[in-house]
Amino acid sequence: MKKKWISYPYIIWMILFIIVPLILVLFYSITVRTEDGIIFTLKHYKRFMEPVYLSVLFRSIYLALICTALCLVLGYPMAMILNGRNIKRRNILILLFVIPMWMNFLLRTYAWMTLLERRGLINTFLNMLGFPSMNLLYNNGAVVLGMVYNFLPFMVLPIYSVLNKIDRSVIEAAEDLGANAFTVFRKVIFPLSLPGVISGITMVFMPAVTTFVISRLLGGGQFTLIGNLIEQQFLLVGDWNFGSAISMIMMVIILLSMGIMSKYDQEHEGGGLW
């Protein structure tokens, strides 16, 4: 007999903390309060189509794409190193890689501020070598650096998990057939690791495109990303309707990106050999 009652607490949890909040956000995004009461309107969505807000969206997507690309370029080799057959104390390296994630996200970002500021450790070291201080903080580079540092584990761990499950006999068969190391990687390892790559891209892009703490601290308020815009509408401006509309638009963008990545993953399910 199936014990369906076991799932009831999870269903109640999802209804209270996922479905109901989403309905409320959707309701705020399509309504406006007037003297005659609440009326339904799409003016909040039309307002987002103004150039100033579209530029914020495009900047957010642009920086998130750069962050995702850098995480992939840095994360894939790291995942292969962790998966190396001859590596010693692999679990210790994985633990050292994961330990920073145990620290509070805000504290990790503040730590980068102490490193990048005008009198920070990096500029102090440069001055000791006779070089002038560099403007390392409050720019796009600092924001991307903070994103990559915070989100890199979300790229490495999924790829490592998939690489670790690849059947070694497939690689050995390719080598026995005369394939060199690059050919083995191009035609065997990388295609088989695509599910992990796609998962990593999704897990990095989603938080990167909506982040607001990193851009506020490392960007110094020099420019606004979509996460900062949503935060301002709720906490500073008090325009919950417009903030909800932006949130719904971002949710649609994220769902579309996840759908595209999922479709691509299904087309290459199992990492079919090229």
Secondary structure layout plus pairing:
Layout (H helix, E strand, L loop, with lengths): L7 H22 L1 E4 L2 E4 L2 H6 L2 H32 L7 H13 L2 H12 L4 H8 L11 H26 L2 H9 L4 H12 L1 H17 L2 H6 L7 H12 L2 H28 L7
Antiparallel strand pairs: 1-2
Helix pairs in contact: 1-13, 3-7, 3-10, 7-10, 8-9, 10-13, 12-13
What can you see in these coordinates?
This protein is mainly alpha-helical. The chain has two domains: 1-41, no CATH class; 50-267, MetI-like (MetI-like fold, Orthogonal Bundle). It has 13 helices and two strands; from the N terminus they run αββαααααααααααα. Strand 1 and strand 2 form a beta hairpin. Helix 1 packs across helix 13 (240-267), helix 10 (194-210) packs antiparallel against helix 13 and helix 12 (226-237) packs antiparallel against helix 13. The longest helix has 32 residues, at 51-82. The protein starts with 7 loop residues before the first helix and ends in a 7-residue tail after the last helix. The model has no long low-confidence stretch (mean pLDDT 88).
